[in-house]
Amino acid sequence: MSAPVSVIIPTLNAADTIGPCLSALAEGAFDGLVAELILVDGGSSDSIAELAEGVGARLIKAPQGRGSQLSAGADAARSTWMLFIHADTVLPPGWPSVFRAHIERGASRAGYAGLAFDSTDRMARVTERWANLRSRLFALPYGDQGLLIHRDLYRAVGGYDAIPLMEDVALVRRLGRNRLTRLAVTATTAATRYERDGWTRRGARNLSTLALYYLGWRPETLAKRYRR
């Protein structure tokens, strides 16, 4: 099999923290699974351009906001499959074989990883269990769990909306349970915001934001509320 996957990462002043994510993705390049790495930058003031050049990534610019950046990355991708992943998410050793097996099963389903946090706090384990339960029961994986999707399926459901928040929820809702599957890997994501704001407070804010989105609040309004 030729390398069929374009990896797309939205960045914003991530040059100092993206290293573990890129190191894990290197296994896919060595394995022959990853064809290209695309960093979609939303206006960083750091050394992301030099970093992209150093690792052989394509760097493109897009309006700030994960929805806009992910959509621009998909438009630029050249491969039949795309892996969308956040800059602070790290895939585990051996992930390429799991992703390759999913690809070989066909293009009818998108795949996502389980979730863990890089924290030893007891509340990290509680939050992980809720996130994985949410993904399984409600077919609602978030962007920090990654999304592996065939280009045709991505286009069929309309791709990422150019919105500042909830772009991941909007896309997986259109995919629906029958076009989503959990892959047999667990991705580790940074706990920085939880540790800064408090696990309970951050978790409550995330849950209330999701509820308000379902009630019809505009993503632009939610983004202002979320970042206060």
Quick synopsis:
The chain is 46% helix and 21% strand.
Descriptive report:
- By secondary structure, the protein is α/β, with parallel strands linked by helices.
- The chain contains 10 helices and 8 strands.
- It has a 5-stranded mixed beta sheet, sandwiched between helices.
- β2, α2 and β3 form a beta-alpha-beta unit.
- The longest helix is centred in the middle third of the chain and has 17 residues.
- The protein is globular.
- The N and C termini lie far apart (47 Å).
- The relative contact order is 0.16.
- The model has no long low-confidence stretch (mean pLDDT 95).
Secondary structure layout:
Blueprint: E1 5-11, H1 19-31, E2 34-41, H2 48-55, E3 58-61, H3 66-76, E4 81-84, E5 89-90, H4 95-104, E6 110-117, H5 122-138, E7 147-150, H6 151-156, H7 167-175, E8 180-189, H8 192-197, H9 199-214, H10 219-226
Parallel strand pairs: 1-2, 1-4, 2-3, 6-8
Antiparallel strand pairs: 4-7, 5-8
Helix pairs in contact: 9-10
